[in-house]
Specification:
- This protein has 216 residues and is α/β, with parallel strands linked by helices.
- The chain has two domains: 131 residues, Rossmann fold (3-Layer(aba) Sandwich); 69 residues, Thiamin pyrophosphokinase, thiamin-binding domain (Jelly Rolls), CATH 2.60.120.
- Strand 10 and strand 11 form a beta hairpin.
- The model has no long low-confidence stretch (mean pLDDT 93).
């Protein structure tokens, strides 16, 4: 049974460090994807696992982590997977049923788009995966999800790979009731939460959901 929660530190941008730190829970499996170790350190955490080609970290930092008990899994620079993809593979292999990825946005646009595409992996169906930079939280919804935030937070729904059918929302200013969202239209952009939680469900397709925290 998948019971573990994994936190993966990527090597992107963090907008709100204090909120990001609050998202990490006791007992989480902490995985740094190469330069994500710098993000973990700034947040005040030491990863249990460091994985990747390690071209974004100085050798002395790798040695410091290894001497401190971090398990280091090194891959060649010339490889077919990004470091984040390798970290996801490791988290799944450890039985993670929930995965939080921090600092996976920003920096190079190709890396950001590649990171987002990883959410559509078949082996992540049934696994709750969320990306977060302290301001924006992103997830891919295939059936249903609950968003926790505050009244006034922005919720945007973007169909992925085609139409999203039977979309129903609760707790949003402009509710949807079994409606169809189309990838070439912007109907699902910039809705707002009316309370501390919102529920989103759909019958067919997939939705990228972006939750933007406001004023915190």
């Amino acid at each position: 049974m998948k019971t573990k929660r994994a936190v993966i530190f990527a090597n992107g941008k963090m907008v709100d460090w204090s909120i990001a730190a609050e998202l990490i829970q006791a007992g989480d499996l902490l995985i740094a994807a190469d330069g994500g170790a710098k993000v973990a350190r700034k947040l005040g955490f030491t990863p249990q696992v460091l994985i990747g080609d390690l071209d974004s970290l100085p050798a002395r930092e790798v040695k410091r982590l290894e001497d401190g008990g971090t398990r280091v899994i090194r891959y060649p620079v010339e490889k077919d997977e990004t470091d984040l993809e390798l970290a996801l593979d490791f988290a799944l292999g450890e039985g993670a049923g929930e995965i939080l990825i921090l600092a996976s946005f920003g920096g190079r646009l190709d890396q950001t788009l590649g990171n987002l595409s990883l959410l559509n992996r078949e082996d992540l169906r049934g696994v709750q995966v969320r990306m977060d930079d302290g301001r924006d939280e992103l997830m891919l919804i295939h059936s249903r999800a609950t968003i926790h935030g505050a009244a006034g937070d922005i919720i945007s729904l973007i169909p992925l790979g085609g139409e999203a059918g039977g979309v129903t929302t609760r707790g949003l200013q402009f509710p949807l009731e079994k409606e169809t969202l189309y990838p070439q239209k912007t109907r699902g952009i910039s809705n707002r939460m009316t309370g501390v939680s919102a529920a989103i469900g759909l019958e067919t397709g997939a939705l990228i959901c972006i939750h933007t925290r406001q004023g915190r």
